[in-house]
Design brief:
alpha/beta; 4-stranded mixed sheet; Aspartate Aminotransferase, domain 2; 7-stranded mixed sheet; 2 domains; binds pyridoxal-5'-phosphate; 17 strands; 450 residues
């Protein structure tokens, strides 16, 4: 149906969703994003009425190769034409192709993979793998960490609000503080050495009351998306590697968000030159289709008995076909390197807006994150004011047809996770629109002088 022939009294998409969906998702849609998406290409999306927006969310960090990449589309259509769904018990050529491709990309000599569908399910799978491999029940995770909202993944997700009323704090998950690369940089602190980080972490866990011999592994994100794109500083992952080696624990890297080139390397842990024991992937792997997995050396994976983690749509043939193409495109188009360069361009342009607009205002923008997993954190005199200004700025960006999501521990971070295909002039165009949005925020906030 053409856009113009839409019946006058037909309810809008947002109205239908608001009326018929649980507030769990509908609340954010009707109060915050207030936007439907009907078509897309590259980093542009269009709503039902045909307005064009620049998408800096990549659909929750999924469209790393851009929306509707023609080669991904072709792979999907070809797979659909032969067989769409088999059930995990019957493997397809697309699944074998993806396994072979991934085997050459993960840093394990004899890798093996466990297919799942969503990120949360992959996290649960990884926790099962770690617990089975080590025959220990406990997992260490980090404050600010996010690993999903299903029952098992919630146990390692830090935010207690997400557990409130639906799940209790699992006795065998312990959370440690997470250091913040940007805080070190902004305050001009020296980056601690591996030894200093080790010393710091050991203060928390080398205590007679701490059941260190019960811990199967540590789960960590190289950049925490949920806490506002908080990157682990250099040396931190190395310290965790050493700690896990010394205590016979596994190092589990949740690369669901950071993987597939987003931070400027294929995997986020590659910035730190470490080899983890378990890698979790999801989001961008399927080029827009749901697929996730756990990767580990066969010595670890072999400890998981038959039937321990399966689900109807695991290793979906169409998602596998898309995944093969996504990996090829990421490498052929050198997208991780582009993410690194465009990320630096964003950082310097956005940080310069402080001098242009916010001198002596009592408010500043701190650009957090790595590669094209960035956050613009608004820092005002109180968390409430920071959140209010971030909301205002996000509304202004939307008026400039730029779509971002809000997040961060205090909901004061504008998240920038666009497709990795952006060009230098795309970034300039987006930053010009940020400047307009901040300029408007200044005029709206006559009391900016906190
Ligand atoms: C690091 C990380 N782990 C796990 C998840 C959960 O993935 P999903 O929403 O696909 O279940 C997410 C989702 O944003 C994530 O960012």
């Amino acid at each position: 149906m053409g856009r113009s022939s839409r019946s006058m009294n037909k309810q809008t998409i947002i109205d239908v969703v608001t009326k018929l969906e649980s507030p769990s998702m509908a609340d954010i849609i009707c109060k915050e994003t207030k936007l439907d998406w009907e078509s897309s290409s590259g980093f542009r999306v269009w709503n039902e009425t045909g307005d064009e927006f620049l998408d800096l969310t990549a659909g929750s960090g999924v469209h790393n190769v851009g929306h509707n990449h023609p080669e991904v589309l072709t792979a999907i259509i070809q797979q659909l034409q032969s067989i769409s769904h088999t059930g995990w018990q019957f493997p397809t050529r697309s699944r074998a192709n993806l396994l072979e491709k991934l085997s050459n990309l993960v840093p394990f000599e004899q890798p093996q993979f466990l297919f799942t569908v969503t990120g949360s399910e992959a996290v649960e799978g990884a926790l099962k793998v770690a617990r089975m491999a080590k025959r220990r029940p406990a997992i260490l995770s980090f404050q600010g960490g996010f690993h999903g909202k299903t029952g098992g993944s919630l146990t390692v997700t830090a935010n207690p609000k997400l557990r409130a009323g639906v799940s209790s704090h699992a006795a065998d998950t312990i959370r440690l503080p997470f250091p913040d690369d940007d805080a070190l940089r902004v305050h001009g602190f020296k980056v601690p050495s591996v030894e200093e980080y080790l010393e710091w972490i050991k203060r928390f866990i080398i205590h007679p009351d701490f059941p260190i011999d019960q811990v199967a592994g540590i789960i960590v994100e190289p950049v925490q998306g949920s806490s506002g794109m908080t990157a682990a500083p250099p040396n931190f992952l190395k310290a965790l590697r050493q700690l896990t080696d010394e205590n016979d624990m596994l190092l589990i890297l949740d690369e669901i968000y950071t993987g597939m080139g987003r931070t400027g390397r294929l995997f986020g842990f590659q910035h730190d030159n470490i080899t983890p024991d378990i890698i979790i992937m999801g989001k961008a792997l399927g080029g827009g289709l749901p697929i996730s997995l756990v990767a580990a050396p066969s010595s670890i994976m072999q400890q998981v008995p038959a039937y321990k983690q399966t689900s109807t749509f695991s290793a979906h043939p169409v998602a596998c076909a898309a995944g093969v193409k996504v990996l090829e495109i990421l490498i052929q188009e050198n997208l991780p390197q582009n993410a690194l360069e465009r990320g630096e361009q964003f950082r310097s342009r956005l940080e310069a807006l402080n001098g242009e607009f916010l001198e002596n205002s009592g408010v500043r923008l701190v650009v957090t994150g790595r590669g094209l997993m960035l956050g613009v954190r608004i820092e005002a005199n109180t968390p409430a004011n920071s959140e209010r200004l971030a909301r205002q700025l996000n509304e202004n960006l939307k008026e400039q047809y730029v779509i971002c999501l809000l997040g961060g521990t205090f909901n004061n971070v504008i998240k920038i996770t666009p497709p990795l295909t952006l060009t230098s002039s795309d970034v300039d165009m987006i930053c010009n629109r940020f400047a307009l949005a901040i300029g408007k925020m200044i005029t709206q906030e006559s009391t900016l002088n906190y």
